[in-house]
Design brief:
oxidoreductase activity, single chain, six-stranded parallel sheet, 307 residues, 7 helices, alpha/beta, 28% strand, ER, seven-stranded mixed sheet, NAD(P)-bd_dom_sf, 20% helix
Length: 307
């Protein structure tokens, strides 16, 4: 089968190529998914798990991409809960070969059923971004109705989902971004937009939650905005500045079938929409990874045409 392979860490995007690789092996409780659409995270070539397995052993060349939507092609020994021919979507393990391939082996528990009226292209944009937003807001920040939340990077893949989920939960949402992101963020029904290029961060006042996907000095400065009893959550890096009498949390998203099912239902009912960007083929993936060529919205890789 064909897949995108990453050959060596030092080569970065230049080390990506389309190649013939062996068909994946279905271990116990695995399924083999015929990939119809896949998503990737631009920074994953820097993830340690892209290059080493859980024991620290080199596993290059590796197949990147860890968001998948497709059809179950094969069940591993002992796999239950899914059937051959079923439409599914979800996350693949970071320490195993990923979804930028014609077929991928995935633990069944990391996948959820996908309704027939949701295209694979849309579904592939949701697993990592959607679960990151959900877990950050509700598992870690414990966001509830009536609270005020500041979401940094509100026009991005994670931030845009977080804005929609927070608004539906009854929170007052302030979304931050660059000047050109204003219409996008307000179009997601955020209550206010914070222009990081023109506005002053301290003008926001105190908030119950800061949800950060950017890190660095912006994350440091945001600590002063969190009121006592609030929460500063980041997926970019561990917070270096701790707000007084508040919690600080850094987390990495985890696969969760029940969470995927909740997101899928919102998507099906029109209560959630990922911001989609370009769609490309497997052969075009090396170009899509290049930061200089990346456009707005989530880039999706179309691999098999099921829609």
């Amino acid at each position: 089968m064909q897949a995108i392979v990453a050959t060596e860490r030092a080569a970065g995007v230049g080390g990506l190529s389309l190649a013939d690789v062996p068909y994946p092996h279905a271990a116990e409780n695995d399924v083999i998914v015929r990939v119809h659409a896949a998503g990737f995270t631009p920074g994953e070539l820097d993830w340690p798990a892209t290059w080493t397995d859980r024991s620290g052993r080199d596993r290059s060349p590796s197949v990147p991409g860890h968001e998948v939507s497709g059809v179950v092609a094969e069940l591993g020994y002992g796999t239950t809960g899914l059937t051959v021919g079923q439409r599914v979507f979800g996350m693949t393990d970071r320490a195993r070969n990923g979804s930028l391939a014609e077929y991928v082996a995935v633990e069944a528990r990391n996948l959820a059923p996908l309704s027939a009226d949701i295209t694979h292209t849309v579904a592939a944009a949701l697993p990592i971004s959607g679960l990151t937003a959900w877990q950050g807001l509700f598992d870690h920040a414990r966001l509830v109705a009536g609270q005020t939340i500041l979401i940094h990077g509100a026009a991005g893949a994670v931030g845009s989902i977080a804005v929609q989920l927070a608004r539906e939960a009854g929170a007052r949402v302030i979304g931050s971004g660059r000047t050109e992101h204003r219409d996008t963020v307000l179009g997601l029904d955020a209550d206010e937009f914070l222009d990081l290029q023109q506005d002053q961060l301290h003008d926001v006042g105190h908030v119950d939650v800061v949800f950060d996907v950017i890190g660095g000095e912006l994350l440091d400065a945001s600590a002063a905005l969190v009121r006592p009893g609030g929460t500063l959550v980041s997926v970019a890096q561990p917070p270096r500045v701790r707000p007084e009498d508040a919690r600080t949390i850094f987390f990495v998203v985890e696969p969760d079938r029940s969470g995927l099912a909740v997101l899928e239902r919102r998507l099906r009912e029109g209560r959630l929409r990922p911001i989609l960007g370009a769609t490309c083929s497997l052969a075009e993936v090396p170009t899509a990874f290049d930061p200089a060529r990346r456009g707005r919205g989530k880039t999706i890789v179309a691999i098999a045409n099921a829609d």
